Amino acid sequence: MDGLNALIAQGRPxxxxxxxxxxxxxxxxxxxxxxxxxxxxxQAWQQKVRGRQEKQWMAADEQQELTNLATALGWATKxxxxxxxxxxxxxxxxxxxxxxxxxxxxxxGSVDGDxxxxxxxxxxxxxxxxxxxxxxxxxxxxxxxxxxxxAARGISxxxxxxxxxxxxPLKSWxxxxxxxxxxxNNVTPPAGSVPYSTGMDIEVGxxxxxxxxxVKPGEVTRKTQGDIETKIVSGQEQIARMQAILSEFKPExxxxxxxxxxxxxxxxxxxxxxxxxxxxxxxxxxxxxQRKAIENINLYIKELTGAxxxxxEADRLRLAQPDPGEKWYQGxxxxxxxxxxxDVILMARASVARYEFYRxxxxxxxxxxxxxxxxxxxxxxxxxxxxx
Length: 388
What we know:
9 strands, 5-stranded antiparallel β-sheet, 4-stranded antiparallel β-sheet, alpha+beta, 3 domains
């Protein structure tokens, strides 16, 4: 006590009970350590004693905290208004606990997602039992009994699932609209994104930023690789679409007579008239073919522009693809449609072949630009002629 009186005489604040308890614990640990140093033969025994003491102190602290919490929740349960209950919780050091009064029921929610709710006249004795030590929630058997006791009295206890709070390293991605985003490794990037690279890999983790110079100057970057792969996949998809259209194409589908007949069959079906099976089958086959061809045009325009456009601009872009027409009098004639279809397939194959060459050779973006600018890169027409 002399040391305490000396502190007070110097004008220093007197230690709180928790500080005094922590200081006493620290002194006891220090004394135990000194005994270990003095008696090496008893070191193992002293370590067990010290570990047991630390566990006892931690258990005492946890019990004190639980008692304090149960007292606060008990008084808040008996409060006349939610505002008064929240003030009680805040005064006890629990301002983050949510409190709701719903008729005779009281609902407590924590920031971690745990939730306990039930009738006020049943919750109050439950908190008192915890405060008085009649229920030990650390004991699995008593905790199970407590849950049964709660369920019988209309008290629900929902425990939130433990969230993964581990820090996740961030990976840089380039989105289709050329924006760089940093996402955790366990988060899927937006569709069409490719790993970001400027000649090196950048990874932001909890310990800081890691820069790996795995891509040397003059080597292809991941972004260029991703762009090339995107071009290859896009070309292969267009080839697949055109081959599907080609498999269903019939010259009469682009002739006025057959299209008028299909329109007339559809009109009769709308009016509920009987349609011969042969006419119905013809209409079904034509519409399947027409849908695929129109879808191809729409996807082509979307891939080319990535945005909406005027009707005039869309009509101009339609000229580059075989056009089935939406109405009976629209679209390409049979010869033009077939010619466009064959040419689109051939040019798409040439494009895929070119980008596969870039990928296999590991060419950088600057090298590709240089080849195109100098004219060393073979034009698609020349590549397509070799594919015939």
